[in-house]
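Page header: ASSEMBLY MODEL / two components / 547 residues total.
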Amino acid sequence: MKRIPHWLIIASIAAVARLINLAQESLWYDETFTNWVAGFDLRQLFDVVRGDVHPPLYYLIQWVNVRLLGNSEFALRLPSAILGIVASLLLWRIALALKFPPRTALYAGILAAVMPAAIYYGQEARMYTLLTCFVFVMVLGAIRHRWLMVIAGAVGAVYSQNLGVFYVGAVLLTLVAQRQLRSRALLAGFAIFILWIPQGLVLIEQARSVAGSFWTPPTSFGATLWPLNGMVLGWRLPSWLQWPAYGAGFGGSLVGLINSRRWLLNRDGMIVAAAMIVAPALCIVVSVLWKPIFLPRAFLPSTTLLMLMWAYALNHLSAPNRATYARVVLPALAVGIIAHYFPVQPRAVARDVAAIIDQRWQAGDVIYYTAADSPLAFQYYLPGKPYLMSANAGDRNKSVERLAHQYLNVGTFDQAVATGGNVWVISTITQLSSLSVLEETDHLRAQLSELVYIYHRDIFQMEVTRIPGALWRQSAQK
Amino acid sequence: MNQFPLYAQWLNQMAQFNAANVMIGMIALFVVSFVVIVQLRYPRYMPAVRIVLSYSFAVVALIALVANL
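Prediction written out in full:
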C-alpha cells in the first residue's frame, strides 16, 4: 500500500473530529454575539467592536463568511473548524521544524487534532482557533528565522485576541535574548508594535469602558493550573471522572516536560517554551499585579503546544516507560474525547427553548427578556419575533450591558403587556446578573404565569414563563 | 448593597474548584517525583512501579465512580 502522507492523516482526523457534529449543539451567547456583530455594516461593526473587549479580525472574517455561506450554526462554526485543522497541521510543521523524527511529528499533529479542548474551540464560533493559528505561524517563523512569518503571525495574534500580546512579548523576548538574532528581532518587534498601535489605542478605550468590571475571577495558584487540565482534556467530563483524568493529564504533561528537556532547552525549543509557558506566566503576573485578566481559553495555543511534549514522551521515553505513559495519558485523552461528544452539560439550551416557544406562538405575542445577555442568544433562534429587553437589565460584564442597551429594543414589562398578546418572559440568571435582574425575575415569577421551561446548572438558571395577556389585564383591573 | 449578589457566590465556587485543582496538581507532582526517583535511584523496582501506574488511571477512575454512587 502506498504510504499515506502525514499531513493528510492529520488533516483527515482533525476534519472528522470537528465536522462530525459541528451544528449539533445550540449556539451559546458568545457565538450569537459573533453572528450579531457580523450582521452589521462595516462602520457599525467597528463601533460595536470598540465597545466590546476583543479585536476586530475574527469578526471581519465572520463578516465575509456570513455573506458567503449564511449564518447557520454550521456556517458560523466552519471558520473555527477549518482553523482547527490548520492549527493541527501547523503543530506538525513546528514539530518537524524542531527536527522531531517524522513519526513523533505525526503524533503531535494527531494529538492536536483530537485534543478535547481543541475540538471544543474548533467547534465554537469564536476567535480562539484563529489565535492558535497565528501564534503557531509566529512560532514556526521564529524557529525558521522567517521574519515576515513572525511579523504576520504576531500581528494576526494581537488582532485576534487582546491577550495575544503575551505570546508576542514572550516570543520576542526569547528572540532578543539570542545575540545573533537580536537586531532583527528588535526590528521585527518594532514593526509589530507599529502595526499594533491602531488596536492598542482601541484596547485602551476598551479597557476604560469595561472600567474594572471584567468578569474573570482573581488569579490564584489553582486558577493557573486549570488550563493545564481543562484546556487539554476539556471540562465536559462528569465530575467524578474529572480529577482522575486531570491528574493523569497533568502527570503526563509533567513527565513530557522532564522528557522534553533535551529539545526544550535548546535555541529553537526555547521559542516553543516561550509560547507554551512564558506567555501564560506573563499574563498571570499582570493579573496578580494589576487586574484579573487571565482567561484560560486564550491559552489554547499554549495547551495545544503541550501536545509536542506528549508526542515526544510517547516516542522517546524508554520502551517500557513509553508503554506505561501511553496507558496513563491515552485513556485520559479518550475519556475527554468521549465526554466532548456525549457531554453531561449542553453548550447551550437556546435552540430547544426557542422550539417550544415557536410551537405555541400566537399572533400578537411578545417576548420579554429580564437579562441583557439573553436577547442575542434567543433572537438568533426566534428571528423576527417582537421582543423587549428590560430597561433594568444589568450585567457585571459592562460591555454586554452597554451594547445591549444601546442596540436592542429596551422597554418595561408593562409596555410588553400593553401590546395585547401573551408575554413570554425569558429569564436567565448567571453569576454576573445584577440585583435588579434577580428582583425582577422573582417579581414576575410570582405573577399569573405558566412555567414553560426551566433549566438549572449551579448558579446558571433559565426559566421561560408564559403570562397570558388577557388574564394579566383582568387582574390589573381588579 | 451588593449589586451582584451571585458573583461572590461564584467566586467562592471558583475558589473551591481551584483548591481541587491544586490538590490534583500536587498529587500528580508527588506521583511523578516518586516515579522519577525510583527510575534514577532504584531502577530495579521500576517494573513493579510501571505495573501499578499502568492500571492507576482505571483504578482511580473506578474508585471515583464508586465513591460518586
